[in-house]
Automatic annotation (TrEMBL):
GO terms for biological process: coenzyme A biosynthetic process. GO terms for molecular function: ATP binding; pantetheine-phosphate adenylyltransferase activity. Its EC number is 2.7.7.3. CDD domains: PPAT. Belongs to the bacterial CoaD family. It comes from Rhodosalinus sediminis. Pfam families: CTP_transf_like (PF01467). This is Phosphopantetheine adenylyltransferase. It is found in: Cytoplasm. Its main location: cytoplasm. Pathway: Cofactor biosynthesis; coenzyme A biosynthesis; CoA from (R)-pantothenate: step 4/5. The lineage of its organism: Bacteria, Pseudomonadati, Pseudomonadota, Alphaproteobacteria, Rhodobacterales. The gene is coaD.
Length: 164
């Protein structure tokens, strides 16, 4: 069984993430969405909410692709998370050239830690390349319309969060 790991903070999950998840699911038998517990980033949504948002979106994607898709919180090294979930493939999404430099360094470090775990990059579809969770949160905070960028349940959660 080929297990893939798609890590991120997913704060919140966007249509760009959903696009990568859908396409990554076609490459593996089981896809684990690694939800990073990154206290340094100070996420808008707590871990439980982020996991719930991912699980809600992945039900339909799992049915559509026939691939088991699960959310898995982690706070350790990415390569250790891959070992924990039995992944031999790490999936990373790229939006722009600026993403590549950081991702290139990460691949080198992960390969040095364990060369048996491969990293695969998937480019976001053109219509999703500009979407970044950070920008989505800013638009929502300022009262803008984020329906083009996030699933309806996420849009509702953002609206509720900033309606105070």
């Amino acid at each position: 069984m080929r297990v893939g790991l798609y890590p991120g903070t997913f704060d919140p999950i966007t249509y760009g993430h959903v696009d990568i998840i859908r396409r990554a699911a076609m490459l593996v038998d089981r896809l684990v969405i690694g939800v990073a517990i990154n206290r340094d980033k100070g996420p808008l949504f707590d871990l439980e909410t982020r996991v719930a948002m991912i699980e809600a979106e992945c039900v339909a994607l799992s049915e559509e692709t026939g691939t088991e898709i699960v959310a898995h919180p982690f706070e350790n090294l990415l390569i250790d998370c891959a070992h924990d979930v039995g992944a031999t493939l790490i999936i990373r999404g790229l939006r722009a050239v600026s993403d590549f430099e950081y991702e290139f360094q990460m691949v080198g470090m992960n390969r040095a830690l364990d060369a048996s775990v491969e990293t695969v990059f998937l480019m976001a579809e053109a219509r999703h390349q500009a979407i970044a969770s950070k920008l989505v949160k800013e638009i929502a905070r300022l009262g803008g319309d984020v329906t083009k960028f996030v699933p309806p349940a996420v849009e509702e959660a953002l609206r509720a969060r900033f309606s105070g």
